[in-house]
Amino acid sequence: MEPADRPMIQARGLVKEFRGFRAVKDVDLDVAEGSVHALVGPNGAGKTTLFNLLTGFVKPTAGQILLDGHDITGYPPERVARLGVARSFQITSLFARMTAREHVELALAGGTHLGWRFWRSDRLLDRFTGRAMELLDEVGLADHAEQRAGSLAYGFKRALELAVALALSPRVLLLDEPTAGMGVEDVERTVALVARVRADRTVVLVEHNMSVVATLADRVSVLQLGSVLVEGPYHEVRDDPRVITAYLGEPSAHH
């Protein structure tokens, strides 16, 4: 196995049942270190459940999850996060009255032995200001550092969520529909942003926008009804008749 193909995340025989409904059925997944791996598929395909399994928010009914060769099956989300897996771009609880800079400082403090402190000592957070500004600059928010999160435009809120995730210095970044609800301009900025922050990281993203997938993803897993229908590079997956059928329905259905 080439070093480039070293798996950072492996899932084997992953199953998740909710009251007898199998949302994820016997999924195997290999996410190569340093790659961008997209999970795509029609609604109800099991993408979000699989994403939640990988981050510890949902425990599998059966199967195994390995992170960098270590078994993390059933670990709670905090423990998965401490091992270097950060998730972003879910609708998180940004504090409306706190500035963008304060959010990132708090996340940086949370990554130390100090833990998340909801009483705030300015002296304590001052030591993180320089790094917080670097991260805000990285996501294009340097000019909005002192703006309250509640007053940021939607695209900038999403960028702030990414800065908060990056503050945890993750090896693996999981992005849940990073461009959902965005206009063309915000989508373009977000794609450029992800392309920039993927350096030295492994990225797994759930994404509906196929042009985003085409631009960013090294490999694509197409899910249908909880199973992996096909996996491979985007250009191969796009032309696979099974994928076209999954998205557009059986050709015979139109007669």
Mind explaining what this structure looks like?
The protein is an alpha/beta fold. 34% of the residues lie in helices and 25% in strands. The protein contains ten helices and ten strands. The protein has helices at residues 47-54, 77-82, 100-110, 122-126, 129-138, 154-166, 184-197, 210-216, 234-238, 241-248, and strands spanning 7-18, 21-32, 36-40, 62-67, 70-71, 85-88, 172-176, 202-206, 219-224, 227-232. It has a six-stranded mixed beta sheet with strand order 6-7-8-3-9-10, sandwiched between helices. It is globular and about 55 Å long. The model has no long low-confidence stretch (mean pLDDT 87).
Q: In brief, what are we looking at here?
A:
With 255 residues, the protein is an alpha/beta fold. The chain has ten helices and ten strands.
Attribute tags:
four-stranded antiparallel sheet, 10 helices, globular, alpha/beta, six-stranded mixed sheet
- The neighbouring-strand order within the major sheet is 6-7-8-3-9-10
Indicate the low-confidence ranges by residue numbers.
none
Count of strand segments: 10
Largest sheet report: 6 strands, mixed
Arithmetic mean pLDDT? 87
Strand percent estimate: 15-25%
Estimated helix fraction: 25-40%
Number of helices: 10
Q: How big is the Rg?
A: 19 Å
| End-to-end separation | 48 Å
Order of helices and strands: EEEHEEHEHHHHEHEHEEHH
Quickly give the structural class: alpha/beta
Shape: globular
